[in-house]
Each structure stands twice: as C-alpha cells, then as structure tokens.
Amino acid sequence: MKHLFLIAGLLTSLVGNSQELEKSLLWRISSNELQEPSYLYGTIHATCDAKLDENTLKALDDTQQLFLELDMDDKSMQMQMLKHMKMNDGTKLSTLLTAEEFKIVDDFLKKNMNMSAKTFDTFKPFIVSTMLLPKLLDCEFQSVESELMKVTKIQEEEILGLEKMEDQMKVFDAIPYKTQAEELLKTAKGDLSNEKDEFKKMILLYEQKDIEGLLIMMNDSDNKITSENQDILLNSRNKNWIPIIIETIKEKPTFFGVGAAHLAGEEGVINLLRVQGYTVEAVK
After folding, report:
1. Could you say which of 122, 163, 239, 263 is the most buried, measured as most Cβ atoms within 10 Å of its Cβ?
2. Structure confidence at residue 74 as a pLDDT band (50, 70, 90)
3. At what angle do helices 177-190 and 99-113 cross, to 10 degrees?
4. Is residue 147 part of a domain?
5. What percent of the chain has pLDDT over 90?
6. DSSP-derived 3-state class of residue 192
7. Is residue 19 part of a domain?
8. In a domain? residue 168
9. Rounded CA gap, 34 and 205, in Å?
C-alpha cells in the first residue's frame, strides 16, 4: 500500500497569477448555487508528520465524502497498479542504458532496496524512483492521504478518486522512458544526495504552506521529469479534475485532497475553479 501513496504522490509551469496566493493548504469552495461549501486541501505524499490541524479536521467533519487523486480504498488498486507498471513495446531499462550504466543502477538498487535492477528491467523507471522515496526520510514513512482516509473511515463516509489508476499510470508512458532512465541513473550516481536536498526543501515549503513555492520548486528542479513535464504531471490532470469537482460539489459538500503542487498557478485547481465562477478562499 505504501507504494500506492508514493506513486500517487509523485504525480504532482511557472506561477501565472498576478495575485499572489495566501500561504494555506486548506481552501473553502463556495458559490451562490451551493447550499454548503466544499474544501480543497493540498497534501504531501511522504512526510515525518502527517498530523491534521483543527481546521482540516473540522472541514472533514463538515463534509460528507472524501475525494483523493485515486480511490486509495479500492481493494483492487494494487492489482491495477501491477498491471500497468511495465513499459510499452517490450522496452527494457537494460536497453535504455549502456551495460556500464545499468551496472551502476544495479549496484545502487542492491544497496538501497536489496534488489537487483534486473527485477525492475521492464518497469517504467520513474516507478522505481518512487519506491526510493522512503529513503529520503529520516523517520518512519507517513502519508497525509492515509490520515485523511482514517478520519473518513471513522466518520463512515465514502472515499473516491478523481482519476483511475490506469489514467495515472499512463502519465509515465507520456514522459519519455529514456528521460526516466537517465534520471534514475543520475540518482544512482549521486546516491540520493541531490534528492535528499530537494526533498528537505520541499518539506520546508510544505510546512510553511507555501503552495506557490512548491510549484516554482518543481519548475526549477534539476530533475527533468518534473521540470520539463508539468503539462503532463499537473496542468492536464488539473483540467480533467475540474468538471468532476464541480459536478460533485453540486451534489454534496465534499473534501478534496490532492498533491499541494496541483493547487497554485494559472492552471492550478484554485484558479481554474475561480475562472468557473466559484469563490475559493484560504481557511486560516
């Protein structure tokens, strides 16, 4: 289950809004046509402290269902993920890299995962990278999505997803496998040093509730997967979510939890909802 949170998490343009967004993770969605407000919350998929604050717990209490990027409560999710892990057309990591490069990755994965790169030879390389995420933490892995689900289950409310596992895994097919392999090789050569530095900066920005800073950090990242593919990772998915969000909030007050990088920017969820006439305001 941990890898489901990691993969969902790493699917999270420069900020295009002339008006700077407030530093907040929790946002209230309202309009004259809605009898009750819904809420939008920026999550982080791996952290040392996933505790939810009082405002967030109240928002969960005031809503009637939880939407995450994926329906993480779906018992078939793991099988769906395994079904879509492999690269298309028989592509292999061992052919995307030279024999020397593949050995570097192999030694690295044996050291950090106690598994050979041969085990993951047909896997999309970025998925292998997500499996290394716990190594960036100096603590036990925690997930904000998991905490949101715990509260929702106690409330005996439904957990749903904005997209299907198949759709999310296709994102890894849209990003060139060669680029993914090169980034995995870079990680192996640096033995996670650059990734650990970037992750610490991301955690700090998240703790500061700086959602615009998180988006800018993605744009400036040395990792080409995130810095050169924001239309695939963020923008197109944000646009796909808006009709679902609008239809849902018209039916019942709902709590939406998505990666915090999806919130800010001209093509972020907050601005896209505002363009549709909804009031989206920070909850302090």
Report:
1. 263
2. confident
3. 60
4. yes
5. 86
6. coil
7. yes
8. yes
9. 32
